[in-house]
Every structure is written in C-alpha cells, then in structure tokens.
Amino acid sequence: MTPRDDTVPPGAGAPLEHERRIPSLALDETQPPEFLPVRVELIPDELRRIPQWVVWRPDLREGKWTKVPYDAKRPRKRAKSTDPKSWTSIEKAVEHHSQNTTSGIGFVFTAEDPYVGVDLDKCRDPNSGVIDDRARKIISQLDSYTEVSPSGTGVKIYVRGKLPGTRHRTGNVEMYEKSRYFVVTGHHVPNTPTSIEDRTERLAIVYGEVFDSANDDALIARARKARNGRKFEALWSGDTAGYESQSEADLALCSVLSFYTGNDPARIDRLFRRSRLFRPKWDEPHSGDGMTYGAMTIAKAHNGRTSFCNPESADGSLARFPGDPSGSDRAESGDLPAVILPGKEIKVVDAAVRLGELLGATGRLFNRGGVVVALKKHNTGVPSLEVVKPAALPATLETVARLFRLVKARNGDSVPTPCICAEKDARLLMGAEQFRAELPPVLVITRCPVLIERNGTLKQVSGYDRESGILAGGRTVPKISLDQARERLAELLRDFKFATLPDRSRALAALITPALVFSGLLPGRAPLDVGEADASQTGKGYRNKLTAAVYRSRVKTVAVRKGGVGSIDESFDTALVSGANFICFDNIRNKLDSQTLESFLTEDQYLARVPYSGSVEIDPTRTIVMLTSNRAELTKDLGNRSAAVVMQKQPDGRQFRSYPAGGLLEHVRANSEYYLAAVFAVVHEWHSAGRPRSKETRHDFRGWAQTMDWIVQNLLCAAPLIDGHAATKQRMTSQNLTWMRDVAFVVANAKRAGDPLLVNDLLDLMVEASDVEIPGSGVGADFEDESTRKAAWQGIGRRLGSFFRDSQVIEIDGMTITRSDFKDGEYRTRHQYTFEIRNDPAVVGHHPTKTPPVDPAKISADPANPTGDSEHSVGDAGRQGEGGVDENKMCRTTSGVSGVLAGDVEIAGQTDDWGEV
How many Å apart are CA 415 and CA 408, to the nearest integer? Predict the structure, then answer.
C-alpha cells in the first residue's frame, strides 16, 4: 500500500489538477457536462490487466444525462455488462477513447473477478475538493483505492471482497460486484491507498450501516404502530415495569427486535444500543467461552421463534423473511416494500426499475428476448417459460410490493394512497426497457447442467448464470474417462439398425450436439436432425426421445396443420418461446415447405410470434430442431440444412435389452447423469485438444460438420460423418426418389427381394401394401377393373422409366435396383426389375451377437450394462456384431484419456433442483 499522511482526512484537500475549469453544472442542459479526462497511469495495475473494459458516451434521457457503455471494438454497438464479447483490454479501450468522441472508459464487474465497486454520489464539491462527512467515513472504513467520478461530484471505491447481501443501492450509495460497470477516471483521491485492498469484513460493516441503518428509524416507527406498540415503546424507553428483572426486559426487547430484523444479530445489537435499556453490562463476558451478555441475550431471543420480518428496501418498509414457515409466496401487504406507481409526479422509469428489481429477485420472472416470461414446470417435471400478459402482472406485483398512487389532498399535498395496479399501468411498466433490464435474462433453460467455457476453461453451470443467460437445473455430473464415455454412448445405439455406418455416426453426433448448442460452444449452426425409416415402428422418434432424455428433457412435438391459428409455424414459435430444448416436426408425410423453419435455420436472430403477446427475439443457435418421417419431401434449402439418420426396422422377434427401470428410454431417464457424464467427457476431450475440426466441406453447416466429424472419427471411433449424405439429401428432396425407395421397401417386406418382377407384379405388391402411391390411379381405385389396372401399369412404367434413362442400375439407401430386358411371347421388349438389399454390415447397429441373461446383482454397479457383460469394453464400441465390421479398428485420438474416475458411477436416482434456482 502506498504510504500517505493519515493526519489529513481522505478527500479533504484541494480540488484535483485540471478540475477547477470543470463547472459543477452544465449551463446548457441540452449539452453534456464536461467530464474529467482519463488518467490511465494512476489506475491500479491489477485492474488494467483484466480485459473487462468498455468505453462510454453521455446520453440525455428524460432530461438526465446517463453514461451509456459501448464496445470499443465496434464503436456503434452498445456494450453489455453481461456480454464478455462486448468488452476488451484497457489498451484498446483507451486507444478508441483517445481517437474518438467517447467521454471515457469503464470497467465491468463479474462474478469471476474478486472486485466490488462502491459508488458514493453527490458527496464532493468539485470546486473545493471537499468530501462530506458520511462519504469520508466510508472511504476511511474501506481504506482502498478511491478515485473521483467523471463529474467531480462523487467518488468510487474499489475493494476485493464479497457483498454480504442482495441490496445494491440506497440514496446516493451503490455497491456492485457483478453485472454492472463503473466509469473509471484514474483521478486518485489524495490520502487514500493507490492499490486495491482485501476488505470483505470491513465491507460487511459498511454494507450493514448503509443499507440497514437507513431503515432503522422506519423499523422503530413500525414497531411503535403495531398492536403491541405500547409494549415496545415502554421497553424502548427503558421501562422495566412488569418484568422481574431488567435482564427479562432486555430479553423481551430483543425478542421484538428479532422479529422485525429477521433475526439479524448485528442489527439487533445496533438497535438495542439505541434504546434506554442499554447498559455497560451488555458488552461484559458472561460465559466460559467469552460470550458477552448481549450476544447471549440475542441468541435466547431467537430460540424457538418461527416468524420474522426482514428489511427489503431503502424506504424503510419490511418484507417477510424467507424462513417464514407459512410457505406463502404472498406476504401480508404491510410486510412488503412500498412502491408508488407512475403518475404526473412519478416517472415510469423509476417505478419500473424498482418493481423490476423486486420481481427479478423472486426467481420466477425473466427477460426472454425483450419479453417478460414466467418460470413454469410441466407435470413431467420439465420447466418451461410462459409469456406474462399485462392482465396477469398486477397480481404478481402485489406479491412483492405494496402499491400506492399519489393523490392530491385538500391542502394540495400529494398523499400516497393504496391502490391496485391497473392493466394500463402494467402495460407501461412492461413496455419500459428499464423494467425488463432488471429481470434476469434467459437464453437457455434446461433440467441438466450446461458445460460452458469461461476464461479458457470449461465449467458446469447448475442454477442461474446471469452472464450466459443459462438457467440450469440438476446437479453437476462426475468426470469419467474417454473410454467409459465411448462405451456408454455406444450402449445407447446398440438396438438400432442403421442404413449405413455414417448414419450411425450422425446418430452419435446428435447425442453430442446439444451439449455444444446449449453452451454456445458449437462453431456455427446445428442442422435439422432428420430421422428417416423404411417403415413405422423403426425407432426414429424413439432415438429423439433418448437424446432428449440424456439431457433430462422431453421432446416438444409440433403438430402439422395447415396455416392459421394452430398452424405448424405458430406451434413452432410457441415451443421456442417456452424454452423447449428439443422441438420435433413429427411424422412428416409428403412435402414440407416451411419458410419459418428455413428462416430459423438461417438467420442470426429469429422473431417468434406469439398470439396476443407480440414478438420474442430468440437466439436460434440454442435449440435442437428435429424431424421424423417415412417419406417426407424436403425443399432443397431444408435438405441443405439437414443431417439425416436413416434407419431400418429390426427383424420380427428381435429381443431388445431390458433394464430394471423398464426399456432403454425409461432406463436413460432414470440414469441421465450416467450418460450426460459421457457426453461431457467427449466435449472436455475435444476442448482440451484445442477444439479441432476436420477438413470436411460436404455440408452447408460447415462448422458443425467439421467439428462433429473430428469428434466421431477421432474420439468415438466411428465412420466419417458426411459420407453418403449427399445421396440421402438428394433423395429427400426428390418425390420420385422417395417413391422409388418406398417401392423397394414394399418388395423387401414381401420377401421378393432378388426376384425379377414385372410391372404387373409390382402393382399387386403395392396394392397389398396399401400405403404407397400408385401412379395413374386415384384414391379408392378398383384394381379389379381392367382399364384401371392398365392405367396403373402405364403410370408405374413411366415413373420407373424416368430412373433408368442413363443406366440399368440405380442405388438408393443401401438397395440396388436393376432393370433387365427380355422378349415376351409376341417378341415385344419387356422390362423386369430386380430389387436387392445389400448385405452391408453397416445396417446393423452396435450390439453383441448374443445377449447374456441379466444378473440382478450387477445392475446397480453399471446402469448401462445390466447384463454384467464383461465384454462391453472399448473394443465393443468398434465392433459391428453380426455384420462383422473390423473389430480391430483403432480410434485416432490426439489428447489421450480424460477424466479421473477409474470405475463406473452408481446412479441412485436424481433430484430436481429447481427449488434452489
């Protein structure tokens, strides 16, 4: 700490250099006042080393000049105290400030740094440099780096420590440790340290004096007016009549004070010392451990008490203490802070800020894309967000404040009068940017932790993280090795039958992608996850549910209807606003042409429209969108923005694995942490390797494709991600190719694969299948009629002919169709078609050839391996089971094995931590 002359009170000297020329008030209120120039050399080094700097400009709002932060890297873009991307180094901030018209620089406080800023406004005479007594006391108590504010009329103190409460401002005093910025001048206050000091304990004392003492008089007045006010007044005045001893009177007063202070020992002590009962005995030790008489009395006063009140606002009103056993969200009106609604004498912004603060502290209301939303929980346990309508806000306001309106009395005075918030008042408040700014912003809402990058490292967010806008439930998951992760993820896909190995790779990518999407780690956009199958009951929707279950979520299904109310676009927008993580366009048949979906998959920001609630700005990079179909036809744009996973139906009689909880989906829902740990292990491995990407260029969403291609090949030992996808995409965007695939499946299901078939044979098979379009015929056609059959033959022949113009062989989704010619009895050239399904090992998902019987004794030890099969090892992740894929395929990895746990983690069940958010 820099030595100083402590005989001179802090701030009692002459005005600072260059300050005499700065007027205390601007003569022309339409022009901003002059501000102190920045003196970078006197700003503490430890602040200068942190890249949390912005620049600022003055802005006239409702007749008052405010300091608006801007991004020094993008001068026209405003900075946000919750957006690290808008901050920079002090060097860049100073460079921009010196070359442009900004008025100064500012430092942003975050939850990760150790700093607290204390702002004392209107406490200093800019002409004489004299600081008032109250501010000088606080400066002396904190004894840390202190500087003059830009206007010269206030000071700012910087300390290392933590605020002991959630209050931030009262009168001309403000204290912040995160999500705010302070303008910085470098004009050091004489006779104060030039370094930032550790001051947690002193900060707690100052905090109590500033925020609690401001309400002490109001608390005393409240106690005097209560039903037992006479009893309080007598004790407060030192009257011990009715008590056998003064000690009993002391205890009685402390009991009353315990109720009104929410059992705050420090405040009870401070108040008691103001009463006439206070005597020297209060500070005398009265127990073997040195506990004073006063401390013992306060402890006794609290013993057995179950109901309290606690100060909540600078106006001296009281609010119910959180420990109140009543459990009611709505306290008695007399226990809440008083707020005056907007009117001629009260600005909308003033009421909006205060009410926004109170509502934001409840953890029930949030700001989602500029719209007020409420946190709800579905009966499945999955949380969601619901737009708050103006008509519903007044009832909510009454749970956090006593509402008043200024009414003119006969003598002309404005008297606060209790009132009910009208809907028009609610609209004014909700329309104020300042109201929404006080509500915690939310971008992502999940039931599981989210892995985010902070200061170059990964951390799990569980709870609410204002800086990232993530509201995450659930508990943190343990670390596991990459080998364990690979095995657990392979376990999820064992019972599926994929058309090709790359289809399985895309299914693996779909398991990992949400972790990167929710955290914002994914470079670029995630594609539309398209699940396709050759028949119903193949598991395409089941795979989506499994993916969501890993993240303790459920899939929100969008029903396909034609325009208007309840249309597919409206259903999609409603799901987005609710915060749904996984949204699925389910069982799409025929052509899907949704400009809404295409816009969502393309634009940087998406405006979701909710009936009667306006538009909500949604970040489209934070949601997983899915689609399932047997024969959907996508537009070319949607095809380019999709990642298809093609599956085939397992043979009849297939024995699927079972678990103590039931099927695989029930098992994953009961043990989601077990599988989420696998996902996080893969993400950690990728991140520690430097977030590498492959050179894959065959997908429009290149950032996703290159990232996931590197992960599936190098960490999960799987096939290249995009191989074969171009042909699948081409087929999904062509109605004719989709029809041809359907015909091939009809032939395969009829067990006629390998047989030469005439058009007449194909017609009979298609009629029997009943769910395939027959060209040349309408709905309900009678195929016993010769003319109808002839029209159908011709229609099928023309459709087939369009495929074989350049070749006699075509391939679709692992099937080969060959056309051959022959002469009939009349020497006419006829065509016959042979459909063959390739015996490709890729069509079989990863699962063992034989499933051993379940050993109940081993179930709890390994939720992913209920059979206790010791062969479920890393090698199994590279084995294709019945198909005979190379079992010796090695996984290319550059960063080794991650994690610290050598064995599997027992999952005993999960708790929903939403009550603590």
Answer: 6
CB 383 within 8 A of CB 447: yes
Vertex 659: Cα angle to 657 and 661 (nearest 5): 140
Q: Would you state the pLDDT for residue 906?
A: 29
Residues near 397 by beta carbon (within 8 Å), at least 6 away in sequence: 355, 359, 403, 421, 426
Write out the DSSP string of 156-183.
EEEEES--SSS--EETTEEEESSSEEEE
For residue 713, the surrounding DSSP H or E stretch is helix 702-714
Instruction: Please report, as a single letter, which amino acid is at residue 435.
Output: F
- Checking DSSP bridges between strand 169-170 and strand 173-176, what pairing results, if any? antiparallel
The DSSP secondary structure of 555-621, one letter per residue, reads EEEEP---SSTT-HHHHHHHHHHTT-SEEEEEEEEEEE--HHHHHHTT-SSEEEEETTTEEEEE-GG
Gap between the Cα atoms of 299 and 321, Å rounded? 18
β-pair type (809-812, 338-340): unpaired
Dig out the tokens for 747 from the structure.
């032939």
Q: Which two tokens stand for residue 660?
A: 């103590």
Cα–Cα distance measured from residue 457 to residue 117, given in angstroms and rounded to the nearest whole number? 26
Q: Cβ(166)–Cβ(358) under 8 Å?
A: no
Instruction: Mark the ranges of the chain whose per-residue pLDDT is less than 70.
Output: 1-32, 61-63, 101, 212-215, 302-335, 378-381, 534-535, 559-566, 589-591, 593, 611-614, 630-632, 813-814, 838-917
Give the pair of three-digit tokens for residue 455: 């200061």
What is the maximum alpha-carbon separation in the chain?
128
Integer Cα distance of 44 and 531 in angstroms: 57
Q: Which helix (H) or strand (E) holds 558?
A: strand 555-558
Q: Look up residue 708 and give its amino acid.
A: M
pLDDT in tens, 11-67: 555 555 444 333 333 333 456 677 899 999 999 999 999 999 999 988 876 567 788
Nearest to 297 by CA among 334, 248, 330, 339: 248
3-state helix, strand, coil in the chain (%, to 5): 35, 20, 45
Q: How many whole angstroms separate alpha carbon 622 and alpha carbon 886?
A: 37
Rounded CA gap, 290 and 305, in Å?
A: 25
Cα distances from 648 to residues 498, 541, 800, 816, in angstroms, run 6, 13, 23, 16
Name residue, tokens 């989602």.
368
Contacts of 18 (CB under 8 A, 6+ apart): 36, 37
Return the sign of the alpha-carbon dihedral for residues 185, 189, 190, 192. Answer: negative
**3-class DSSP state for residue 91?**
helix
The answer to whether the CB of 515 falls within 8 A of the CB of 678 is no
Instruction: Specify the pLDDT at position 842.
Output: 40
The Cβ of residue 691 has, within 10 Å, a number of other Cβ atoms equal to 14
The b/e string for 259-279 (b: 16+ C-beta within 10 A; e otherwise) is bbbbbbbebbbbbbeebebbe
762 CB-near residues (< 8 Å, 6+ apart): 743, 746, 747, 796, 833
Please tell me the predicted confidence (pLDDT) of residue 365.
92
| Cα 503-742-885 angle, rounded to 5 deg | 30
Around 802, how many Cα atoms within 13 Å sit in the side-chain half-sphere? Answer: 12
CA 629 to mean position of chain CA atoms: 30
Q: Provide φ and ψ at 594, rounded to 5°.
A: -115, 110
Distance CA 615, CA 576 (A): 11
Residue located via tokens 């080393």: 49
CA-to-CA dists, residue 80 to 53, 100, 179, 181, 467, angstroms:
11, 20, 9, 9, 10
CA distances 118 to 137, 142, 203, 210, Å, are: 13, 10, 10, 11
Q: Are 729 and 812 in contact (CB under 8 A)?
A: no
How far is it, in rounded angstroms, from Cα 131 to Cα 128? 9
What is the Cβ-side half-sphere exposure of residue 267, based on CA atoms within 13 angstroms?
Answer: 27
464: closest CA among 434, 478, 444?
A: 444
Which among 3, 7, 9, 5 is positioned nearest to 129, based on CA atoms?
A: 9
